[in-house]
């Protein structure tokens, strides 16, 4: 019997408010599928209590947690080790406890890229420029994973241009500044003519939010259109792109693929992202 199988394992997701997180449903599915004596629950923790909660993980016998809004950035000072990718992305989305020490990492970039590769297998990072809409935490995971995978130029478009410029300054430390450019929000549609991939990282198009309205007429029909929103699965942006013949990628796979390496780190079990788990998680929406 391995160490991982020897005792009840507790993990969870920490946020404020924690609301309708799909993560307990997802991890619960994998725990049952593999017959692991473990549990994954949602922890509602106010920002002012985050330090005490995170520091008490070893004493509580919790083997790890995911972090969600607003804790992904706030958790940095409370950890013993943070990996390079999480530092570059500026966010920690999971913590692992080992020998009473707290390790922070980020699997959002991995989830973003793996979902893209699975659903648009002929897209090549080196083929040309990419456009990203947004400049929040999700945009940073996309920017880092795309630049790391060899995209020649990422063009950022954000309603508040100064936030996109701030990202440009941050990443000038890591990448050739010519590879991360900032466009004007009003020029978004006209700037799409040489784009191989268009990504929405904003909340626009999510249930209860206004749609993201972009004129796609200049976008090559060979370009991939990727929306990280997963509720609804097909946003207005994706429907418009599909109807004009573009390959589309929805955001559910990103949620599933970011979860898999964290599950493996905590519970010592590899998991598959397959249609069955996708279908099960979708029913929880
Ligand atoms: P996250 O960390 O999940 O990416 P965030 O930091 O709140 O979330 O970022 C949300 C993104 O959606 C931002 O890029 C935001 O643009 P601003 O920086 O201008 O706020 C974008 N966004 C939200 N509502 C928007 C709207 N109505 N029009 C255009 N962009 C919007």
Automatic annotation (TrEMBL):
InterPro entries (UniProt xref): Aminoacid_DH-like_N_sf, NAD(P)-bd_dom_sf, SDH_C, Shikimate_DH, Shikimate_DH-bd_N, Shikimate_DH_fam
Signal peptide (UniProt feature, chain positions): none
CDD domains, per the entry: NAD_bind_Shikimate_DH
Pathway per the UniProt entry: Metabolic intermediate biosynthesis; chorismate biosynthesis; chorismate from D-erythrose 4-phosphate and phosphoenolpyruvate: step 4/7
Catalytic center residues: 72
Keyword terms, alphabetized: Amino-acid biosynthesis, Aromatic amino acid biosynthesis, NADP, Oxidoreductase
GO biological process, one term: aromatic amino acid family biosynthetic process
Domain Shikimate dehydrogenase substrate binding N-terminal intervals: 13-95
UniProt GO cellular component terms: cytosol
GO molecular function: NADP binding; shikimate 3-dehydrogenase (NADP+) activity
Positions of shikimate binding: 21-23, 68, 93, 108, 230, 258
UniProt catalytic activity: shikimate + NADP(+) = 3-dehydroshikimate + NADPH + H(+)
All residue ranges annotated as the SDH C-terminal domain in the record: 251-274
Pfam families: SDH_C, Shikimate_dh_N
EC number(s) from the headed UniProt entry: 1.1.1.25
Residues that bind NADP(+): 84, 134-138, 158-163, 228, 251
Matches recorded under PANTHER family: BIFUNCTIONAL 3-DEHYDROQUINATE DEHYDRATASE_SHIKIMATE DEHYDROGENASE, CHLOROPLASTIC, SHIKIMATE DEHYDROGENASE
Similarity-based family: Belongs to the shikimate dehydrogenase family.
Subunit structure, interactors included: Homodimer.
HAMAP family: Shikimate_DH_AroE
Free-text function comment from the UniProt entry: Involved in the biosynthesis of the chorismate, which leads to the biosynthesis of aromatic amino acids. Catalyzes the reversible NADPH linked reduction of 3-dehydroshikimate (DHSA) to yield shikimate (SA).
Record's protein name: Shikimate dehydrogenase (NADP(+))
Organism in which the protein naturally occurs: Paremcibacter congregatus
């Amino acid at each position: 019997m391995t160490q991982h199988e020897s005792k009840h394992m507790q993990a969870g997701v920490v946020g404020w408010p924690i609301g309708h997180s799909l993560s307990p449903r997802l991890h619960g599915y994998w725990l049952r599928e593999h017959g692991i004596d473990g549990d994954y629950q949602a922890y509602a923790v106010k920002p002012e209590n985050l330090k005490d909660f995170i520091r008490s993980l070893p004493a509580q016998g919790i083997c790890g947690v995911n972090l969600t809004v607003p804790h992904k950035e706030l958790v940095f000072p409370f950890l013993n080790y943070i990996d390079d990718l999480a530092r570059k992305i500026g966010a920690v989305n999971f913590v692992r406890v080992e020998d009473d020490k707290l390790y922070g990492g980020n699997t959002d970039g991995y989830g973003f890229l793996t979902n893209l590769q699975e659903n648009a297998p002929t897209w090549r990072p080196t083929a040309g420029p990419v456009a990203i809409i947004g400049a929040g935490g999700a945009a940073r995971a996309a920017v880092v994973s795309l630049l790391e995978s060899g995209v020649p130029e990422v063009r950022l478009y954000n309603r508040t241009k100064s936030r996109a410029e701030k990202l440009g300054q941050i990443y000038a430390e890591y990448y050739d500044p010519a590879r991360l450019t900032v466009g004007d929000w009003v020029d978004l549609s006209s700037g799409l003519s040489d784009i191989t991939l268009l990504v929405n990282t904003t909340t626009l198009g999510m249930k209860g939010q206004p749609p993201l309205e972009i004129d796609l007429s200049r976008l090559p029909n060979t370009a991939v259109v990727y929306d990280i929103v997963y509720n609804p699965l097909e946003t207005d942006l994706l429907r418009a792109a599909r109807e004009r013949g573009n390959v589309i990628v929805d955001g559910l796979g990103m949620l599933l693929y970011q979860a898999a390496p964290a599950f493996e780190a905590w519970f010592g079990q590899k998991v598959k992202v397959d249609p069955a788990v996708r279908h099960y998680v979708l029913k929880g929406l």
